Amino acid sequence: MACRFNVRALALGLLLTTLICSGCVSMRFDRINKGADVPEPAAHLKEGTATLAEILSHYGAPTDVVDMKGNFALLYKKSFYQGGQISIGIPLSDLYFRPSLKIEATGNLLRHDLLALFFTPDGILAETMYERGASQPFWKSFWK
Amino acid sequence: MRHFLFTMIFLLVLITAAGCAVIGRGKDFRPIEEKTLTQVEPGKTTAADVMRLFGPPSQIVKLSNGNAYIYDRSLSKATGLWLVLVTFANYDTQHDRIVFFISNQDLVTHYGSSFKSDTSSYGMPF
Fold first, then answer.
1. B126 CA: distance to closest CA in chain A (Å)
2. For chain B, which domains are there?
3. B71, closest residue in chain A (CA to CA)
4. Which of A32, A94, A138, B47 is positioned for an S-S bond with B91, CB 3.0–4.6 A?
5. C-beta atoms of A61 and B126 within 8 A
6. Helix (H, G, I), strand (E, B) or coil at A81
7. At residue B61, does pLDDT exceed 80?
8. Residue partners of A129: CB distance under 8 A and separation at least 6
C-alpha cells in the first residue's frame, strides 16, 4: 500500500516538476555549416611547378581571390559553428516580487577548414598552407 | 493503478513533446549554369563574352596582370525543432561558384568552378 502511494506521488511530482520547469529551464543547440569540405593539399601539385590551371582543375573555384601586390592567393574555406545555451530562470516578478532569478550559460565555437594557395604573378604555385579546424574536438578546442 | 500511471506517462510525453518543427530554404540566386561553361574557351573568350553569358560578376578582384571575376550563388537549408525544454537548430549553406581570370588584354586565361549547392541538406545539430 505504501509502495503504491510512493509511485503515485513520484509520478505526480515528476509531472508537476516538468510543468513548473517548462517555463523556467531551456536549452538550445545550434549548428551552422557554411561551405563545402576543403580538400587536403594534393601531393602531385607541388610548389614551384604546379600551375594555376592545374590548381583550378583540381580544387575548383576558390572561396576568395586575394591580390598581394604582384603575387596573389586563392583561399578555400569552410566554416563550422556549434553553439549551446542553457537558461534557468524563475520569473518572480510575475508573482508581484521585484527580483527575478535567471542564470544563463552560453558557449559557441567557430572552426574553419582553410586551404591557402599562394601564386607568383605568372600563375605558378609558390606556397601552400592548410589547416583543418572543423575536425578539432569541440570541448577541447572550446576550453583551450 | 495501471490506468493512473498510463495517464501520467501520457501527460508527461504530451507536455515534453509539445512544440513545433520548422524547415526553411533560402536561395541567393544568380543565373549561372554549369552547362554555359562549355561556351567559355580560355585564350579566346573575352571579359565581355563572360558578362554576356553570366551577367555582371558578384565580385571583381584587381590583380597585377588582370582581374578575377567571381560569380557566386548559394542555397541555405534550415531545420529547427522546438520542444518545451530544448531547441535544436541547424543551418547548412552551400555555394555554386565560378571564378574567371581575365588578362589585361580582356581575355579569359583560366577559370575554375564548383557547383555544390545541391549538397545543402536539412538535419539536426548532432
1. 8
2. 21-119 (3.30.1450)
3. A61
4. A32
5. no
6. strand
7. yes
8. A114, A115, A116, A118
